[in-house]
Amino acid sequence: MEFINAVLRITMIIFLIRAVITIATGFIMSRRMQKAQRSTELMNEKMLQIKMMEQKRLEESELQKHLVKDDYCGRMIDRTKAFIMHCEGKTCHFCSWECREKYLEETVAI
Ligand SMILES: [Zn+2]
């Protein structure tokens, strides 16, 4: 009778240990899954940020195609609204008539 009791106890203990292991592995796996999910979410966020930055850069370069630099004050101006003048073998752009005048004054003074 004592022998049967001992066997029963041992099997009970084995079952208990197996149950604990199963629960532990399940817990660890779920934690890992969560971690993996979080990292992919972070990756997605980073990718989105990169995409947005590229989009912004593209838009800026597209905008700069239409912009020219004022040769006097250095401001960026719309190509179609710029005062254009040919000077020293190149095309000069100015944001205003005043800038054009000032540029002319300075270049003449030199
Ligand atoms: Zn200007």
| Outline | rod-shaped
CA-atom Rg in angstroms: 38 Å
What ligand molecules are bound, each kind once?
zinc ion
Largest sheet: 2 strands, antiparallel
Structure summary, number of beta strands: 4
Looking across the biggest beta sheet, what order are the strands in?
Answer: 1-2
C-alpha termini separation: 119 Å
Mean pLDDT: 91
What is the count of DSSP helices, taking H or I runs of 4+ residues? 2
Number of domains: 2
Set out the fold topology.
Blueprint: H1 2-65, E1 67-69, E2 76-78, E3 83-87, E4 90-94, H2 97-109
Antiparallel strand pairs: 1-2, 3-4
The chain binds zinc ion.
Zinc ion is lined by residues 70, 72-73, 75, 94-96, 99.
Your description of this structure?
- With 110 residues, the protein is an alpha+beta fold.
- The protein folds into 2 domains: 1-64; 66-110, Ribosomal Protein L24e, Chain: T, CATH 2.30.170.
- Helix content is 70%, strand content 15%.
- The protein contains 2 helices and 4 strands; from the N terminus they run H-E-E-E-E-H.
- It has helices at residues 2-65, 97-109, and strands at residues 67-69, 76-78, 83-87, 90-94.
- Strands 1-2 form a two-stranded antiparallel ribbon.
- A hairpin with a 6-residue loop joins strand 1 and strand 2 (76-78).
- The longest helix is centred in the first third of the chain and has 64 residues, at 2-65.
- It is rod-shaped.
- Bound molecules: zinc ion.
Provide the descriptors you would attach to this structure in a database record.
Ribosomal Protein L24e, Chain: T, single chain, 2 domains, binds zinc ion, alpha+beta, two-stranded antiparallel ribbon, 110 residues, 70% helix
